[in-house]
Amino acid sequence: MGKLIYSMITSLDGYAEAAEGDLGNGAEDEEVHTFIGNAFRNVGTFLYGRRMYETMVFWETVDAQPDVPKYILEYADEWKAAQKIVYSTTLESVSSEKTRIERAFDADAVRELKAESDHDLSVDGPNLAAQAIAAGLVDEYHLFITTSVVGGGTRFFPDGVRLDLDLVEERAFDNGLMYARYHTR
């Protein structure tokens, strides 16, 4: 049985998407990016909303660019090898292999995917993750916390949800980014 993991870069004040601008320090450096690659190596299926998919599909063709560092190519290979499900009512087609579109999030179908999977699953994007959280499907939360306070946007955790979590891992990176991994109780 696979675990469902929700992970995003988030601002210090808890926003996964800033109302204006970006979230500040992120996964741009080798240390952080290598850590993320290692942390998500066991993910065999990514669940995306349309906007997150449109951001992540970059990995499908990054190897065609000149002078790409080895750690970027390694992550791209693992991303391309994974299954991807995009939940969207508007996306007409996908531009990556091993990808399918679902028109609506179906909690029972995701529960079945988890039960049948030999690998972990990752739900990415705060709006899609809110649906998985509300359905009680998320097993782990991986927060990559920047040093920026952005003052508004879309929160990492949805409003109206109470979760009791256990901190199981933490790490500080040289660029100021903090990592915290939690299990649901």
TrEMBL record:
Domain of life: Bacteria
Pfam families membership: RibD_C (PF01872)
Boundaries of every Bacterial bifunctional deaminase-reductase C-terminal domain copy: 3-178
One GO MF term attached to the UniProt entry: 5-amino-6-(5-phosphoribosylamino)uracil reductase activity
Gene3D superfamilies assigned: Dihydrofolate Reductase, subunit A
GO BP terms, alphabetized: riboflavin biosynthetic process
InterPro entries for the chain: DHFR-like_dom_sf, RibDG_C, Riboflavin_Biosynth_HTPR
Name of the protein in question: Deaminase
Source organism of this protein record: Agromyces fucosus
